Amino acid sequence: MTNAVITALPTYTMCTYLLPKTVVKQIDKFRKHSLWRGSDLTSKKPIKTAWKMVSVPKDCGGLGAINLYTQNVSLLLKHLHKFYNKADVPWVHLIRTCYYPNGDLPLNINRSSFWWKDILKSQTSFKCMATATIVDGSTNFFWNDMWNGRSLSSLSSQTDLCSFAIEKHVTVHSIILSEDLLDHFHLPLSVEAFSQFQQLDSLVQDIPIQIGSDVWSYIWGSTQFSQSRLICISQEQEIFTLLINGSGSLIVSQNENSSSGSY
Fold it and tell me: How many CB atoms within 10 Å of residue 136?
């Protein structure tokens, strides 16, 4: 009943906006009352277990209550999937025409509508769970994004060379089509940076630019974005905090934050 009715009520809104934490907290309060008190609002029944345990999947011994924050972000990420894959839908064309007419990628979220700002707040999450297969290289940053199998560890191995880069937010497309790769760096390079430059030069030469759009794939091994798969992974493997924070270590889950001191 909790998932089917109360949790389902804000779904349409969560597909469009990032709910304020106070709203999520209030909905969770209603869900807790529904679960423990039923129809008797004056009931003083003690809670059976902490809310963070209630949110654990049933297969793992919990009650499977959906984490609203996780669900909200997951629903918003599908918009970034359409944007970065250049889906042929009206709103994608509108956003690209209004905010990125020169083919730029999102950087400054302050110069956009309140709806698009909410979407871009999840951009770090998207980049941590997605990698691009280069076709024209126009939808991903050369230094900051994962592409053609480059992992976060491989990106960190080029920090010396990156420190000499003139423009940190340059696309793969711009790098590959440049006549002289050295034009993108402050000269002279250090010994370590030059060694990394030689490796980079060899890598760039092996990347052909084609007509079409880059293809983004996800950590579950598919090019199709699946909100249910993302929620499943976040619940069972507890990696959603890594995606939300865009960091390399698991800190504190949103589920624990929202339930501490409240049942």
Answer: 18
Residue 185 DSSP code: B
Q: Determine the pLDDT at residue 255.
A: 41
Name the stretches of the chain with pLDDT < 50. 239-244, 246-263
What six digits make up the tokens of 78?
């599908």
**Residue 26's closest CA among 68, 64, 79, 85?**
68
Residue 218 corresponds to which amino acid? Y
CA 8 – CA 186 distance, rounded (Å): 53
Domain ranges of the chain: 1-131+222-263, 135-213
In one-letter notation, the amino acid at residue 137 is G
Residue 262 is predicted with a pLDDT of: 41
Contacts of 112 (CB under 8 A, 6+ apart): 99, 106, 120
109-128 pLDDT, tens per residue? 777 888 998 899 888 889 88
Residue 57 neighbours by CB distance under 10 Å: 14
Q: What SS3 class is residue 209?
A: coil
Distance of CA 176 to the CA centre of its chain: 26
Three-state DSSP at 46 gives: coil
Q: Distance from first CA to last CA of the chain, Å, rounded?
A: 18
Maximum C-alpha span of the chain: 74
pLDDT at 263: 37
